[in-house]
Amino acid sequence: GMAAAAAAAAPPSSLLLVVGGECGCPGLLAYVLEELERGVRSWDVDPGVCSLDEQLKVFVSRHSATFSSIVKGQRSLHHRGDTMETLVLLNPSDKSLCDELRNLLLDPAPHKLLVLAGPCLEETGELLLQTGGFSPHHFLQVLGDREIQNILASRPPPARLPALTITCPTFGDWAQLAPDLPGLQGALRLQLRLNPPAQLPASEGLREFLEYVAESLEPPSPFELLEPPSSGGFLRLAQPCCYIFPGGLGDAAFFAVNGFTMLVNGGSNPKSSFWKLVRHLDRVDAVLVTHAGADSLPGLNSLLRRKLAERQEVAAGGGSWNDRLRRLISPNLGVVFLNAREAAMRLVRGEDEAELALSLLTQLGIAPLSLSRGPPPAQPTVLFQKMGVGRLDMYVLHPPSAGAERSPASVCALLVWHPAGPTEKVVRVLFPGLPLPNRGRPGRCC
């Protein structure tokens, strides 16, 4: 009875599961669920203190779901029981993730578990969130936060140090995390355990829990991912302008002059960062993919998927004319410049985004053109020319020769707008692509 009363008085054990990014294909979803199962089963919480199997069943039936009004697509599933508090963070922004990590570090619970799972890069293990990447470097910044350490230092010391079990990717840059943790234990007043082996057997509660999370991670349809605008009408951009859309691990850029429009890369977020602008255009005249990978193609592939889904809608018929009209709003696509035949950067168990792009383009009847510099002197490709208005040239600076475009080498291109008016300024925009060799953090597209 005394032990039960003491357990009831203690704060509940705390469990934080984080699933970054959209799981856009079955392979990714299976990988993320395996990582979640590995994480939960690695927790050595005492069954006398907390029956994990029972608490996971309670979570499935009683949790509350919150959709973020600030970060679209982010969801929190939460339940606080007598012996366990669980928070599952789905598709979060980096700010939301860091906020919840701080809360977990400051939580007085004696037993804490953190599971970091989600789509991640094959080479470095960097987790893909909605708004960027989350690497061991970012994680150590949160663990080493002085403000957190000062708050903990101001509290009376606990009789026994709480334990925090952390599971995260075990390869790439995460493999270097272990030596940094012992030095943080004193300041954080925590026993830290990193990626311990499985302690618990598979259980009914865990199976129910993972099934529920899998349903929550079902990828949205192309129409849910890229929503139609609330108002009609097309946008026409006359003056030379260049917009940069932060897209997570890689940006997208959009250049326009006198009604001619060009999209450069798609960014790493499948919820295309450029969509809110291009959905108001009747046509994107050119698409330039400087390099093919998980940082540059997912945003573009979502647009191609939507175009394909629109065609299928038209063929299928049904629904009111207005409904169908609202959905069929993606711009027509002109020429697509894409070199690589395979992705230089991939997600663990994810699709090859370059192969996917080529397949979608084929289904849409668009044959991509490859780019190379060719022999000197450099000859530009004229993208747009109108008497009395001006001419838009594209110079390819890299790769040097035809054939090189089959390699993962990045395209470096210079756009030059020559206005017809003698008083108007020449405008030059350089898209340097990726630095090579590509090691470590991906470069920006623009």
TrEMBL record:
Keyword Cytoplasm belongs to the record: no
Keywords: Microtubule
Transmembrane stretches, start-end: none
UniProt key word rRNA-binding: no
GO molecular function, one term: actin binding
Annotated InterPro entries: MAP1 (IPR026074), MAP1A/B/S-like_MBL (IPR057480), MAP1B/S_N (IPR056617), RibonucZ/Hydroxyglut_hydro (IPR036866)
SUPFAM superfamilies tied to this protein: Metallo-hydrolase/oxidoreductase
Microtubule-associated protein 1A/B/S-like MBL-like domain sequence ranges: 220-403
GO biological process, one term: dendrite development
A GO CC annotation given for this chain: cytosol
A matching Pfam family: MAPB1_N
Sequence ranges assigned to domain Microtubule-associated protein 1B/S N-terminal in this UniProt record: 16-215
UniProt cross-references to PANTHER family, sorted A to Z: MICROTUBULE-ASSOCIATED PROTEIN, MICROTUBULE-ASSOCIATED PROTEIN 1S
Name of the molecule in the record: Microtubule associated protein 1S
